[in-house]
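Reviewers asked in the last cycle whether our approach scales beyond single polypeptides. To address this, we selected a multi-component target totalling 540 residues and predicted its structure end to end. The input consisted of the following lines:
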Amino acid sequence: MTFREKLTNIIKKKQSLLCVGLDTDIEKIPDFLKSDPEPLFAFNKAIIDATAEYAAAFKVNTAFYEAYGAAGWSALEKTFACIPAGTLKIADAKRGDIGNTAKMYAKAVFEKLKADAVTLNAYMGKDSAAPFLQDPEKGVFFLCLTSNPGSQDFQYFNDGKHKLYERIALTVNEWNGNSNCGLVVGATHPEELRGIRSLVPGLPFLIPGIGAQGGDLEKSVQYGLDENGTGALFNSSRAIIYASGDKSFARAASIAAKDTRDALNKTKRI
Amino acid sequence: MTFREKLTNIIKKKQSLLCVGLDTDIEKIPDFLKSDPEPLFAFNKAIIDATAEYAAAFKVNTAFYEAYGAAGWSALEKTFACIPAGTLKIADAKRGDIGNTAKMYAKAVFEKLKADAVTLNAYMGKDSAAPFLQDPEKGVFFLCLTSNPGSQDFQYFNDGKHKLYERIALTVNEWNGNSNCGLVVGATHPEELRGIRSLVPGLPFLIPGIGAQGGDLEKSVQYGLDENGTGALFNSSRAIIYASGDKSFARAASIAAKDTRDALNKTKRI
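The resulting structure, written as structure tokens, was:
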């Protein structure tokens, strides 16, 4: 089964377009958890257990774990291991390096963490992506148009025919021989999202920015999905995992995840 | 002291432009080391001890350690800790992510690993770079024109005035208010290197590709240095650290490092 088929199946089976982002910051987790011997993992396990019913995917941002060195990597591995079967595991690593190094990164995310998909930066070109694309079951979401203010600096660079983010979308579409490529497109750019969807009707999108970053949920769903209504995952991190800062954090995250899933599905039907 | 001043001082004091790249692959280290409880660290320590005399800097490629999960990160931390004072420590991480995530990455490389500098991908723009640039003592080398074949895919994208890699060079020059920015420019592109040096005369370059990748050492030195002869570090990884695959590996690495340093200095004087 290709990554694309796996994604479609999970979205349909779980009736969810939601990706819950585990950008777990030790300073933002409830105080009572900070004395736990493994606070990042304890928090993540509670969040995963409380939200997995409503999530098609979990996206784990590796930076938040690397900041704690080897202990952080241990928390990262345990977090991936406790994401239930039938839910996609995405390593949000935004890597990109030359061939022999890329092979090592691919090993880190697909073999050590057993992730289903990874985010990559395409700047270094095809040989930096190839080691991640060999296995059709493993997916890659390439950075296309990101949700942050700095997306203005280089991503709109224009050769008179296309902007750089459009050139990346078209090139990634050419790399999609194994049906395992996708794009990261921020919900903070709904009009551009519509344009990218028309350029590459078949690629799945990972769409961050609908939560704390203030992206437009309705327009993102309207413009981001493909014609089968399964071509995108919508990520919310902080608005779900930090919905409450006290003992009720897992229950609050569960409600926030359910509400977000429902809002996505409702918009989809409009 | 700014990062730029630190770099200049070390190059002058050690009379070396050499950066030794610790891209340590467990499959390539001598067999007798593979039974060591910490084979990556044991190898690195021997290489560092044998080559530090000839190296202005060590560049540690984080991918090669992440591939081994928490144990790999432990080897990474111990490797950074045993690089002697008076030699630059560069974390070759090629990171790039939005502001709140970038802060975590900056913490990982500057606080946990105590690196002097890091490599970053500029694609996500200024807010992704800002957390790394706050401390003038810590340097950032941004990917400009990379040494691999895939550099052709996006880096030459042209807006009619500049190619993308030139636009990145000019923009990074604007971010250099703390005198701590630099660029990664591959030795495999000597003519472009000359062009970039004339665009940004003051930025230091990290130049990979002079060893196993077959870049042109003489032209890279001729075109890459600034007018003071201190504006670049030349990285060699595989040609030095795997100079021999048997018990004499450290001695062979020492000779290869000395020869490379001497070749760089000789070319500099021509």
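The mean pLDDT of chain A is 94. We regard this as preliminary and will revisit it once experimental data from Aim 1 are available.
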